[in-house]
Amino acid sequence: MANPNNSLSQKVTRLDDDISKIKSDLKENKIRPSTQCGKWPVRVYRPLISPKLDSKVILTDSTWQFVEIYLKRNCTNSDAVFYWQQAKNFYEATKQLDLISKPLTTYYCFLNATKALLECKSIDYHFSHGVSGKVSDGHKRLNNELVRFQVRGVLSGLCVYLEEPVTPESTERKFEEYNLKDILYNLPYVHRAYHSTYGNQAEVFIPVLNPRIVHDKSRGKCWLELQLEPEHSNATTLGRLVGYSLDRRYRNDEIYTVRRNKDFKWNAPRNKPDLISNNRLKNYLKNRRSEMAYIYSANDLWYVKRKDLKSTSVISRSTLPLTYAAMHRLSELARYEPQSLRAHLEKDASWLLSEFIEKSIVQFIDQISCEITGNEFRMTGFRS
Prior knowledge:
The protein is 42% helix and 17% strand. The chain has twelve helices and 13 strands. The chain has helices spanning 4-26, 64-74, 78-94, 102-120, 154-161, 180-185, 191-197, 235-240, 275-290, 319-336, 338-345, 350-373; strands at 36-37, 40-41, 58-59, 131-135, 145-150, 175-179, 205-216, 221-228, 244-246, 257-265, 292-295, 301-305, 377-378. Helix 2 packs antiparallel against helix 3, helix 4 (102-120) crosses helix 5 (154-161) and helix 10 (319-336) crosses helix 11 (338-345). It is of the alpha+beta class. It has two domains: 63-180 and 319-378, no CATH class; 205-305, no CATH class.
């Protein structure tokens, strides 16, 4: 005969387990408060240099008119407006062309848009392109298409503005040299097409959600917090995020919340930072933004660029100069060797090249627009 006391004890144990589970499920996952400047919560912004922290996202399907008005109101140099209008003309012309012809007008769109930025920001630059290309001996492959960043020219001026100046490889080789395949590997907006083409290389971009600056009031410290998508919320991805760790404040079950280990001191009575704290914030945002990339779309698509890869294919440069340089090489082929460009478009990398030629112009103009104005832009019909 079963002991009734044992049966009762088992029921009590199960009940305690159920209560513990309910308490765990109901445990409040307290979200860290965002760092605030005035009424504005601070996050990661698309402009790399001088983002407007107190500006709402601009909803528009085209930044051309907005930026032109901005330049007329805020830039004393009329050349900036002229170059911006020229960029738009080349943008419109590009729509009418096929893939083999598009790179030529697309590059001149990039060239003039970049000049508009440099004129607006009063950056000195030489009027040469600042980039050159050549083909190395061998088969028609993207890694045989070489691109050189020159120390003078429009591209060099863009790199100076972005605080990543061109560094000569030696006294004899007064340039930086990359191949077209590696440049495309480092562009977030074609990373899916790249890995569909070259599936044997590690992905260099890790998608992240809700990048924001959070505040620990008791410690007077702030840092970058972000979340990993469910399929990336695992120890493997966490190990690839150099300089990040899991934030144990959160449950981290389906979605990991991680933090940048590097933080900064913050003193902001009533959300009004003192001068020192404000400068710390600006420097921190600039440094964290340089480690990240975004894709212009209807949604926020942010990525952290991996630092754990030892491959020489990883280039420590931001998206704008890499896009500019890659399109310049394709424009050379479109102008002087269209048969070579056609050959590339008929080989294994055809999908990757097609995606780059079609998508880069929208991505480039969005980011240049962000840098000129300090604003962020989003397609209409989407509410943040």
